[in-house]
């Protein structure tokens, strides 16, 4: 077993125990069955991985295969059109989503919008441009691997978040661009089960942007995070799993002196405050600086900066991700997760982000997405 597979399997065991929606734990619905063995337990059953035990689920896949038996194994999406790529009744668990796309528009990763609806709710719990959902926040393909998302060679998009649903699940893709999508290939793997644990939570993902952020030129300190860039605000009980972030620099020099800040359950000041943007994404020292100074893309299990172009110059582009799988940020009533744009918000750059989290009930409706044309990354005149 490769070290990466071992780490991933270890994490799936963790989310099963924590009730985050991991497939093995949700199917079993029995934390004792996967707990560490005790001296009194001589059966050996707790030493077996989930795949070596009798299944308590049924395995299915919905795909874009040619229903006539031919080889046109894809959907087409006209400009302005919406297609359903998945519909199922529960209880069940989505375990893997794979897409690959051939489209006329060079901006299709920003123009196609992924929406997921749980248990018949009229508003989506996932609403994200498709590229942003898979960590390609600036609309460009690049190769990378992480615990939950990756972009494989030849533009294969993969998501491995476990997504439980009790009564139903529906996934749609809308083409908000001006050109048709000729070939949209889809494979979505899922399981059906007799019942889900009472503490199984619903997966959420929300897109946000600021193009640009507004610089606070006179600010010297920032204690409460009032003017930070906000990744997510939500009400309810749940756990934050992480974020992806794309940045376009509107002026040169290092953009990332901003600290991440998290307020929880209505706290007046952040419960969690970090030490800088590159530190939050678990890099260091402004990711190595400019290309001349040695900036180098990186992609690890829980953190990465897999895309860096022209760093620390006007027009510089970064794609970053951070997963909190080791310690999901828990909240009982509310959560606001944010980051400064420069020290004390003194920079005006363009931010494009997606936040990923679970909560016990589908969240309230999200604010409307910006129009597709406004989602296309570009250098903008600084404000402030």
Number of strands: 23
Q: What pattern of helices and strands is seen along the backbone? A: HHEEEEHEEHEEEEEEEEEEEHEEEEEE
Helix content: under 10%
Shape: globular
Low-pLDDT regions? 2-39
Task: Give the CATH architecture of the largest domain.
Answer: Sandwich
Q: Structural class of the helix and strand makeup?
A: mainly beta
Taken together, the total number of domains comes to 2
CATH topology of the largest domain: Jelly Rolls
In round numbers, the mean pLDDT is: 90
The CATH first-level class of the largest domain comes to: Mainly Beta
Radius of gyration: 21 Å
Distance between the termini: 52 Å
Characterization of the model:
- The strands form three sheets. Strands 3, 5, 6, 11, 13, 15, 18, 19, 20, 21 and 23 form an eleven-stranded mixed sheet that branches.
- By secondary structure, the chain is mainly beta.
- It has five helices and 23 strands.
- The N and C termini lie far apart (52 Å).
Short description:
It is built from 5 helices and 23 strands. It has helices spanning 3-18, 23-28, 108-111, 130-133, 277-280, and strands at 57-63, 75-77, 82-89, 92-103, 112-118, 126-129, 144-145, 149-152, 156-159, 163-165, 168-175, 181-193, 202-210, 229-235, 238-248, 260-264, 272-273, 298-299, 303-309, 317-323, 329-331, 334-339, 350-359.
């Amino acid at each position: 077993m490769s070290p990466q597979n071992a780490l991933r399997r270890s994490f799936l065991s963790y989310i099963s125990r924590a009730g985050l929606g991991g497939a093995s734990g949700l199917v079993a619905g029995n934390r004792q069955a996967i707990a560490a063995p005790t001296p009194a337990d001589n059966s050996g059953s707790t030493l077996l991985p989930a795949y070596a035990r009798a299944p308590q689920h049924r395995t299915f896949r919905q795909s874009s295969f040619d229903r006539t038996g031919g080889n046109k194994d894809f959907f087409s999406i006209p400009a302005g059109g919406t297609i359903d790529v998945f519909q199922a009744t529960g209880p069940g668990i989505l375990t893997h989503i794979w897409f690959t796309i051939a489209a006329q528009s060079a901006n299709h990763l920003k123009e196609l919008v992924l929406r997921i609806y749980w248990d018949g709710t009229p508003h989506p719990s996932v609403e994200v441009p498709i590229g942003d959902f898979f960590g390609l926040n600036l609309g460009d393909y690049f190769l990378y691997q992480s615990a939950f998302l990756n972009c494989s060679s030849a533009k294969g998009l993969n998501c491995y978040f476990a997504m439980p649903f009790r009564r139903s699940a529906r996934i749609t893709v809308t083409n908000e661009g001006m050109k048709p999508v000729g070939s949209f290939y889809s494979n979505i793997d899922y399981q059906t089960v007799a019942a889900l644990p009472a503490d199984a939570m619903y997966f959420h993902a929300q897109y946000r942007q600021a193009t640009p952020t507004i610089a606070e030129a006179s600010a010297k300190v920032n204690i409460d995070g009032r003017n930070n860039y906000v990744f997510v605000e939500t009400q309810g009980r749940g756990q934050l799993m992480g974020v992806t972030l794309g940045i376009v620099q509107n002026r040169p020099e290092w953009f990332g002196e901003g600290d991440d800040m998290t307020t929880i359950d209505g706290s007046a000041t952040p419960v969690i405050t970090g030490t800088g943007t590159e530190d939050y994404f678990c890099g260091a020292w402004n990711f190595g600086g400019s290309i001349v100074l040695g900036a180098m893309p990186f992609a690890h299990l829980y953190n990465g900066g897999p895309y860096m172009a022209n760093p620390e110059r006007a027009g510089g582009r970064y794609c970053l991700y951070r997963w909190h799988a080791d310690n999901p940020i828990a909240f009982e009533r509310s959560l606001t997760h944010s980051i400064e744009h420069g020290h004390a918000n003194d920079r005006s750059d363009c931010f494009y982000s997606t936040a990923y989290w679970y909560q016990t009930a589908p969240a309230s409706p999200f604010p409307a997405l910006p129009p597709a044309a406004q989602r296309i990354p570009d250098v903008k005149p600084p404000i402030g």
